[in-house]
Design a protein that fits this description.
The protein has about 725 residues and is α+β, with helices and mostly antiparallel strands. It has 15 helices and 37 strands. The chain folds into 3 domains: about 300 residues, Beta-galactosidase, Chain A, domain 5 (Distorted Sandwich), CATH 2.70.98; about 140 residues, Glycosyltransferase; about 100 residues. Strands 1, 2, 3, 4, 5, 6, 11, 14, 17, 18, 21, 22 and 23 form a 13-stranded mixed beta sheet that branches. It has a 9-stranded antiparallel beta sheet with strand order 7-8-9-10-24-16-15-12-13, with helices on one face. Strand 35 and strand 36 form a beta hairpin.
Length: about 725
């Protein structure tokens, strides 16, 4: 018996499964019924066996059945139904407890396939969104996939921005993907920050990944001692697994960072199981998709888009005009002079009362002071709001007058309390943030016949600093000392300053800026794009993969494409865009919350994005990209980019108090971010300036370029008109 999906055949032989292509077996499972069983000794054992009966049903599906009996006398019946679904297969499993052995407490099961040509984990390039990219070489040591010697590489799907795991053979390119079939996770019955072997009848999230287990159990006692015991399951090789309910791990434990002296390197392996209770039954559905790719990028794009199309959450309905003006009014209210002309907005404030917690004026990154200044100016001129324009201009004036150090580099953070700049490194990404916005403010006012040569001089002096420190290969370091000596030797942030140099060239016509941008672009093409080195853009995090590095790669490669029209920059742009998109929670699941004032206590978490790899949870930083993806849609004609642009423009707003229903003292603000991968909302519930900036920037640019605050309004333009307006550098530095 067999099912066919394109070139792939799913066959059944001797109670097992085989996946073939052109007669060659790629994947198999000789014993598809696999159970994890928790005993009264608090050890999870595992057992497997072949199906007893396989038959075709009248509607063309294949039904497989069997009973697995544990040594303690529990009887678990497995009923698996296989069918074709689109270009892949759907596997539906029901496990029922027929008899409970006295010493068995709980169970879980897995759907899995042995990867025929993989002898070790590094024979595969893997993809799990916001969790695992290629070999995960740019992840922290405790992130799944970093240590290839672990027996288990499983991650609960609620920590993934879409519930999928794909593995591509480096040798053949053959790719297998398992994903949850529907976005139907429910609330668990227990609230857990941490679990090792919890039994929860209401837990409905699974986990996905790889395993290469020994033929013995593994349970870690609280101080890290691994309990090993021979078990009844047989290991055939590396498998791709969907485990239900979830097993999380095996990964290095974070406790080492606390310098606790244990006698061994500890790891963690956390499980949830359903109760071994006579008559209890669970049911889950898994999609199996198969393809072949020459490279990681097309595999990642295929895997993401396949599941995105099926599980993407509904659009959140939001009045973008209202929310834009909420944000402007909030910044007008918060902006003030903190003494001696130090204009800006607070560094943080707790919600819902907008209780200001810290005053520190940061040039870019999470502070975004010049960025907020530019946005107030842009709004003030467009909508004739003198108060907004003047407050924004005052912010720019402060930085131009005081922001450069003696070497021309922009200082990072000013303390109005001490009336001095804080001892910050010169972060490349943070510098680019502020410099771009000061340059934009210069261009904005010059087009209105208002000259500010000192604003341009500030930008050029900073550019001279960075030209001096640019490496021969075109790269820049992640951070510098104030005098320009290297502070952090990673070069992965090089692309973040490219757009500034491109736009400074357009304003001044000076070739050295164009040359610097192109050299930095060449280095970034070979390393950031081709090597997937999207890491280190979050200045308060380690130099690991993150979503903001993808965003800044988009900024830089799009600027180079806008400047030159060369296809290679478009190729790199699309690679960065496809990578960055995978950092957005595009499906949804319910979470507990005991904070009724937080909008996410009542709304979907879709639209939020993890900050760094493997963490789950996150914030609404992807709001920054709506304008970018809409522009990419116009360039490529790919409707998926338009859909995604609208999704992040709308669903990121679920974290905002747009209409005042949550009682925020300042309407429209949003929390900075938090955790929810364990289905419980954890947040400090505070606002930082970047939160508002990343909503204002794409919204105002949609209006300035396409004449509307929302995607639907932009779409009213003809295709010809959209393409004309999308050539933004045609008029960027055109001064009448």
């Amino acid at each position: 018996m067999k099912l066919q999906a394109g070139a792939y055949e799913l066959a059944f032989e001797n109670g097992g499964t085989l996946i073939r292509k052109n007669g060659q077996t790629l994947y198999y499972n000789r014993r598809p019924m696999y159970a994890f069983v928790k005993t009264t000794l608090a050890v999870t054992e595992f057992f497997d066996r072949a199906y007893e009966e396989v038959k075709e049903t009248d509607d063309g599906r294949i039904s497989a059945f069997g009973i697995l009996i544990t040594p303690n006398g529990s009887w678990l019946s497995f009923l698996d139904v296989y069918e074709t679904a689109s270009e892949g297969f759907l596997i539906s499993r029901t496990v029922t407890v027929l008899e409970k052995g006295a010493e068995d407490l709980g169970f879980a099961s897995k759907i899995s396939f042995v990867l025929q040509d993989a002898e070790k984990v590094r024979d595969l390039h893997c993809f799990a969104p916001a969790t695992w990219y290629r070999d995960n070489e740019y992840a922290r040591p405790y992130v799944t996939g970093f240590d290839p010697d672990c027996e288990y590489h499983l991650r609960k799907e609620t920590a993934m921005t879409l519930p999928l795991f794909a593995a591509k053979s480096k040798k053949s390119g053959e790719t297998i993907m398992l994903s949850r079939s529907k976005a139907d996770v429910t609330l668990p019955g227990r609230r857990m920050y941490h679990f090792t072997q919890a039994i929860d009848r209401d837990f409905t999230a699974g986990s996905i990944g790889l395993s290469q287990p020994e033929d013995q159990t593994i349970n870690y006692l609280y101080y890290g001692f691994p309990v090993r015991k021979k078990t009844g399951a047989v290991r055939d090789g590396i498998t791709i697994d969907y485990v239900y309910p979830a097993t999380d791990g095996q990964v290095g434990d974070r406790q080492h960072s606390y310098n606790i002296d244990y006698m061994m390197k500890t790891k963690s392996l956390n499980r949830v199981l359903h109760p071994m209770e006579q008559g209890f039954s669970d049911h889950y559905e898994v999609r199996l998709d198969l393809a072949c790719f020459d490279d990681f990028y097309p595999m990642m794009r295929w895997a993401w888009r396949s599941v995105y199309q099926r599980l993407r959450d509904r659009l959140f309905e939001v009045d973008q005009n209202l929310q834009y003006h909420n944000n402007i009014e909030a910044m007008k209210k918060l902006a003030r002079d903190y003494g001696d002309g130090a204009w800006g907005v607070p560094f943080s404030a707790f919600l819902p009362d907008a209780d200001v917690d810290s005053i520190s004026l940061q040039f870019g990154f999470v502070g975004q002071q010049p960025g907020i200044g530019y946005q107030l100016m842009d709004h003030g001129l467009r909508e004739n709001d003198p108060e907004a324009f003047e407050k924004g201009q005052n912010i720019i004036r402060f930085w131009v007058k005081n922001g450069a150090n003696e070497h021309g580099a922009p200082n990072g953070c000013y303390s109005p309390i001490n009336k001095a700049f804080e001892p910050y490194p010169i972060w490349l990404r943070m510098s680019a943030d502020g410099l771009e916005n000061i340059l934009d403010a210069y261009v904005l006012t010059r087009k209105k016949k208002e000259e500010h040569p000192d604003w341009l001089a500030f930008c050029e002096r900073a550019a001279a600093f960075f030209l001096r420190v640019q490496n021969e290969d075109g790269s820049f370091y992640r951070a510098y000392e104030p005098d320009g000596t290297m502070r952090m030797d990673s070069k992965a942030n090089t692309i973040s300053i490219v757009r500034f140099f491109v736009q400074l060239f357009l304003v001044t016509g000076k070739e050295e800026y164009k040359e610097a941008a192109l050299k930095a672009g060449e280095w970034s093409y070979a390393n950031v794009y081709e090597n997937m080195e999207y890491r280190g853009s979050t200045c308060d995090n380690a130099d690991v993969m993150d979503n903001e590095s993808g965003i800044y790669a988009m900024f830089g490669f799009l600027a180079l494409y806008d400047l030159t029209g060369e296809d290679r920059w478009l190729k790199a742009l699309l690679g960065a865009a496809d990578y960055t998109e995978t950092w957005t929670y595009s499906w949804t699941f319910p979470v507990y919350s005991d904070q009724p004032a937080c909008p996410l206590s009542k709304r979907s978490i879709s639209g939020q994005s993890p900050v760094t790899i493997g963490t789950g949870g996150g914030d609404m930083y992807m709001a920054a990209c709506a304008y970018l993806y809409y522009r990419i849609y116009i360039i490529t004609g790919d409707a998926h980019y338009r859909d995604y642009a609208e999704f992040i423009h709308s669903n990121t707003r679920q974290a905002n108090d747009v209409t005042g229903e949550f009682g925020y003292a300042i309407r429209g603000l949003s929390w900075e971010g938090g955790g929810f991968a364990d289905q419980e909302l954890h947040t400090l519930h505070h606002w930082l300036p970047w939160v508002t900036y990343v909503e204002l920037d794409p919204t105002s640019r949609l209006m300035d370029t396409f004449g509307a605050y929302d995607i639907a309004g932009c779409e009213r333009l003809s295709q010809e008109e959209k393409e004309k307006r999308n050539r933004i550098y045609d008029d960027y530095a055109k001064f009448a």
